[in-house]
Design goal:
The chain has about 300 residues and is α+β, with helices and mostly antiparallel strands. Helix content is about 15%, strand content about 40%. It is built from 5 helices and 19 strands. A hairpin with an 8-residue loop joins β5 and β6. The protein starts with a strand and ends with a strand.
């Protein structure tokens, strides 16, 4: 029997919406799994909970509002950027060197695989999470829930028990889980895995990703060549979105003369972007489909949701 910690309806304010160099929207997956890992480390410091371990994490979105605006007559949206207070420099004032851009407010639930806790310790774990979670940050955003408003529960699910899974899902509906759809890129002829560079084909993975996200609009004309109807279609069905899932090394790890922290090795890296899908919970067959896990190799740090 597996145990799952349910953190329902976390109200996150000003989360980071810029997940990679060219994606604005849903925060990167390492931000969510990193927040769960930070929560685990804090939980381990509590009395009697040193053996607690968090495994896979499921992410369910109930609502969101990105900070953006659109001028009248302009079809394009622009980010709503705050003007932070000036910073004094000598006799003059200047803007702060780092201004947060691309923020989003979200209503999110997390489902966390838990091990190392028995039935007696479950109440202690729930109490510790209620105390620690409100003072943490998730995806660079502030958690607005107060301790007494968090309805945190632990669910027990057998490997073949569908009823227990439905009870867990009923507490999360309505909502959409973010899933990995990397197999769509594989079907397009891209690389077999994140650590394989597709240098043989005439097209690259970016072309395949854009083709999957492309929305085709076709006009239907009558006998007089007037438009009577517009139809929209995509190459694949589903609410497909680009998601940032991790990083790939561009250089070997080593020390640099001017690096910020000399106690750690330095390594250049780039973001890894793939195809994801927001899928309604009633269309997900079992809880394993929800879970995201880390995958780490010598040159790869990525979050995966599928075993491809």
């Amino acid at each position: 029997m597996k145990k799952y910690l349910l953190l329902p309806h976390l109200k996150i304010h000003n989360a980071n919406a810029i997940s990679s160099n060219y994606i604005i929207g849903f925060p990167a997956l390492p931000a969510w799994l990193g927040g769960v890992h930070a929560l685990e480390r804090k939980i381990k410091c509590c009395a009697g909970l040193a053996e607690v371990s968090f495994g896979g994490t499921g992410i369910v979105v109930h609502g969101y509002k990105i900070h953006s605006h659109r001028l009248k007559g302009n079809p394009n949206y622009s980010l709503a950027i705050t003007a932070n207070p000036l910073k004094k420099k000598g006799k003059d004032f200047e803007r702060p060197p780092i201004i947060p851009e691309g923020r989003i407010d979200m209503d999110v639930s997390l489902v966390i695989d838990v091990t190392g806790v028995d039935v007696v310790q479950e109440s202690d774990l729930v109490a510790a999470v209620k105390q620690i979670l409100p003072v943490m940050r998730l995806a660079s955003g502030d958690i607005m829930n107060m301790s007494d408003t968090l309805n945190i529960t632990i669910h027990h699910i057998d490997d073949d028990e569908a009823k227990q899974y439905r009870e867990l899902v009923s507490e999360l509906m309505p909502g959409y889980a973010i899933l990995e759809r990397r197999e769509l890129l594989l079907e397009s002829g891209g690389a077999e895995d994140y650590d394989v560079i597709d240098a043989v084909n005439e097209h690259d993975a970016m072309d395949d990703l854009l083709n999957l996200l492309q929305v085709n609009e076709v006009a239907e004309l009558d006998d007089n060549k007037k438009i009577v109807k517009w139809s929209r279609s995509r190459s694949k069905a589903g609410w497909l979105v680009p998601i940032a899932v991790g990083y790939k090394a561009l250089s070997p790890a080593g020390k640099l003369s001017e690096q910020r922290d000399g106690s750690y090795e330095h390594q250049f890296a780039e973001s890894i972007v793939t195809i994801g899908e927001f899928k309604a919970l009633h269309r997900i067959r079992n809880i394993d489909e929800l879970m995201w896990h880390y995958k780490c190799t010598n040159n790869l740090y990525v979050c995966v949701n599928q075993n491809i």
